[in-house]
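From the pipeline queue, job 12 of 40. The input is one protein chain; the requested action is below.

Action: predict structure.
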Amino acid sequence: MNHLKDNMKTEILELCFPILALILMGLLQIILHRIFRVGSIITSFLASFMINFVVLAIAQSVYFHYSDLNSLDSFFRQFTNLLIYFCIAFCFINLLNIGEASLRVKILYNMSLIPEGMPSSEILKTYSADEIIKLRLERLLANGQVIQKDEFFFLGKNRQLLLAKFFLFWRKLIFGNKYPKY
């Protein structure tokens, strides 16, 4: 019975690895973004994600090296924890980005800044489809992600495209073909 309790404690400890890595990732992202000014939020996220992925892999390797598990069990537990970390990090970046990406959240936030209420004409003017697309295209042009020649737009830097494909890959992996297409 004591062996069973010790085994359960060990397994719970092993599951803490991805959670601790997520906490460290968040702290590292704050440090990278605010103190060292490492690019955009996405850049600091990817840097902190990769650094913590390596730290997690090394920490688990050391831990499992000294554990009583055979090498196959050790490998699968490490793989499972890295997969859990991947999924938690995916949720983290989506939660981090929701305020920027969600029009509804932006409208509600802007309305909260004006206690006397926001006129519907202001909302329609600020959030018209033409205005939103114009602002997004300006941002894409400013970042070099899109290049404009005459009236045509072409792909520029493909970092965001790779990131978008990465997120679409994970959405498809998680939800299958039933996720909404944007």
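Job complete. The chain has a mean pLDDT of 82.
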